[in-house]
Fold:
Amino acid sequence: MFRDLNDFLADLAQRGELARVSEPVDPDLEICAVTDRASKSPGGGPALLFERPAHHDIPVATNVFGSMSRICLALGVDSLDAIARDIEALTEPRAPSGLFDMIRMAPLLGRLADLMPKVVREAPCQEVVQRDGFSLDELPILRCWPEDGGRYITFPLVITKDPETGGRNIGTYRMQVFDGHTTAMHWQRHKGGAQHYRVAERSGRRLEVAVALSPEPILAYAATAPMPEGLDELLLAGLLARRRIELVKCVTVDLEVPASAHIVLEGYVDPGERRQEDPFGDIRHYPK
Structure:
């Protein structure tokens, strides 16, 4: 199982499923246009690695999970059917109806007990720490559609904790960049992050948030899985990876992030603050 995104991309390159783009391509519309064309190719097209995004030093990988074969590879299986039962047991739990059910569930429960995430002292994502002078403009954040209201972080792992219970949630919420230090946090009402924000807001407190970018591939699925309320997405990731997921403590907020992440953003959402997102260029509004 792949420990970070670089390992996964190296494996894809050996399999002939990674196309490297060495010419400068602009994160403003151009990268998304190339990706859109590639993803609509037969079989989903190759994963793409833009090695020199225009005006930036950080490479951009897209269409990484754009085919069924790459999804299975990221999850470490030959077929999604191989892990369907374990995923269902976690995402749609039910109380055992009898002795047979209890016996059937015992192996899974035993495995989960050994797969709780663990905190490590240091991680590559903290080799460079910028407290002052940093701007989101340094990151090659994409603008996908000509009519978009701005650039969007489209696949973040947004990490929050319930201010009362301490329960963790990891979700994938679109983040529109407003300026060099501020983004929208598009968590819909029924999402775990939104619930944590409501709890903090009721007591007049800001909610601390950490955003992990480009973590190990298994976490990309776990963060989007429909987990029941109160069940940690990292348990699912550990179950699928067959090992404990490593976390590292954040520098400025009281949260932990995947040690495998390439970039971590740390910040907060103030109580009562609302900002208008949009327009969204991929949604067309027609007159009634």
